[in-house]
Amino acid sequence: MKNQSRFTIVFSLGLLSALGPFSIDLYLPGFPEIARDLQTTTSSVALSLSSYFIGVSIGQLIYGPLMDRFGRKIPLYTGLLIYLAASIFIVFATSVESLIVVRFIQALGGCAGMVAARALVRDIFPVSENAKVFSLLMLVIAVSPIVAPTLGGYATAHWGWHSIFIILSILAFLNFILVFFLLPAGAPPDLELSLKPKSITSKFWKVFKTPQFYTYTFAGSFAASGLYVYIAGSPHIFMELYEVSEKQYGWIFGIIAMGLITASQLNTLLLRRFRSEQIVKVALLFQVLIGIIFFLAALFNLLELYSTIVLAFLFLSTQGFAFPNTSALALAPFEKSAGTASALMGALQLGIGAVMTALVSLWSNETPLPMTLMMLLCASIGLGILIFGSKRNITLVTE
After folding, report:
1. What is the CATH number of the domain that holds 72?
2. Is the pTM of this model over 0.90?
3. Which residues cross the membrane (predicted)?
4. Is 90 helix (H, G, I), strand (E, B) or coil?
């Protein structure tokens, strides 16, 4: 593969993957204004984040088999068009209930990009390079938490929260163009694959019961849920408790996201000397330790603006090591069914994230305690699953 072609493919896959994070991060600074405009609370608006996660979780289970049956691109085009239509519809939302419902539909479309991007990595690149490619994708994805909240803060301040979903519509259209002109088709369609419910369920079960898959998928999913809990809780913490502006919140979110970017690129260097499974164990251990400090600081009222930023920065940095390696290890055993495996992995990750973000939204009070406790809980469960799975003597497929 030529370097120019490789760069083009990785960049296109990264932008496709970034559609999901942009859909989450871009509208976070607008939570207070959305709540005022729709005459509700920020906690109720945060439920639209949970509905988005639920939609992504369910949608991936649909796209996985479709992408194995019809190829990657046709389902991907369909998903992007659904996303585009839902984004335009949200511009005219008049109630928090309609926002929650249409965000669910938007997610059903947008998750096609997430499934396709992971499956195409498995299709196009050798298995031994997958963790490195996922780290490169993380670089593009991780830029979105820097750009999106800052852009969202300025867009909300100058043009109102509706402009956020106009921007998302433009991003969806740009992705459609890049997919059409730049991305290879990936694995050929499997015309013999049955789309009957029993056959699909059987294939999902075959993937799910693979020890390497479920160990690294669940460990990575709970670790990632700590990130989703932070995303759901941070608008309330920073803009209401610490009273920062929409613009300031965007910059804070971006600074914290720098830890994720730095870690994901450091991960590519570590992979030259260490195996993915070694890096994951250390990353999740550090995530738990930082989570303990974060929770205790909140419990004893020791947190203030700057300490919250520092601890969130450190906690999210561990995700830059966890995500690329758990993703690569979970998908490594699957060649012909990479679409199904990618979909199931994403569905479990976002499904767990949806539950955790809903809990932190419903439990929201006037302290950072709910957010920090849920972050610690997610990290601890992820590490526990990894330790338990490692004791089952998994025969790793890594190349």
Report:
1. 1.20.1250.20
2. no
3. 7-24, 44-63, 75-94, 100-121, 133-155, 161-183, 213-231, 251-270, 282-303, 309-331, 343-363, 369-389
4. helix
